[in-house]
Predict the structure of DUF3667 domain-containing protein.
Amino acid sequence: MAHHHLRKDRTCLNCNYVVENRFCSRCGQENTETRQSFAHLVTHFFEDFTHYDNYFWKTIKTLLFKPAVLTKEYLAGKRQLYVPPVKLYIFISFITFLTVGLLQSDDNEAETDRNLNEALKLEKKDEATSGQQRGRDNDDLAYISEYNFNSIHEMDSIQKTLPPPKRLKGMNHWMATKLIQIKENTRKEGFSEKFRESFLHNVPKVLFIYMPFFAFGLWVMHNKKKWYFFDHGIFTLHYFSFLLISYLIPFLIGSLLSLVDWMEIDGIMHLGFLAWSFFYFFRSHSKFYGERKAISRLKGMVLFVINMFFITLLLLVLFIYSVLNIH
């Protein structure tokens, strides 16, 4: 990289410490002239971009094809060669969900809308057959679903005509209200688009919140004297970064394949990345913690099953939350 001209004044502009060489020994700032020519600014921009580009792609290459090496290098103190774990995860997370949001297929949205319209037709048929059953007690969800109120106003009006013991109260009333809101939302144009945006908007938050629990599971399963929670946290950041990339790459390739009608390859490609992701966890776990293969595989399987259960549960909760909070 090209160097800026050094200042004649040896006082650091950042901390006022005396600079003996090019860099301040206290804060590390380079003691160069603050004003440069436009040509130098353009040159410096491209040099920095190229430097970061090599720096970033080296990190990605190591992350994808050398399980656990990136984590071991970072904990060994080699931190100038790669993108820091937190910055790497945030950047990959941003790029992944931005790309997915921009390139989500309009065909999938249209298909979802068609499915919703078919579901609404079935609901209308159910309403016609269940209209005579509205005198039942409200002790369970069957009562709520069989009423099939078309609006909250209609529900409140009917409730006023019923004797107090038969009126919806508490949790039943809340759930009936939410069911009505869902029905009203599904009738609106763009429901699937709003749902998708809401879901994708919250997935990064869910994953970020879950990562400490993932690291906690690693901490529970391994030697507390040999491994700090910090070590498990770095392993977690790198593994979740890998998962996001292993989702983004086939998504991008699948989007390109859809343009040339080669979608029969898409399923095979996704299956391949899924298999690599499964293998990657056990490989990185074994290489990083350095345990005997049988013990490492057993711990890895226990951790994998537990985390798959809780991640699936969280995504289900997120799905329900996204549906209930679309306006």
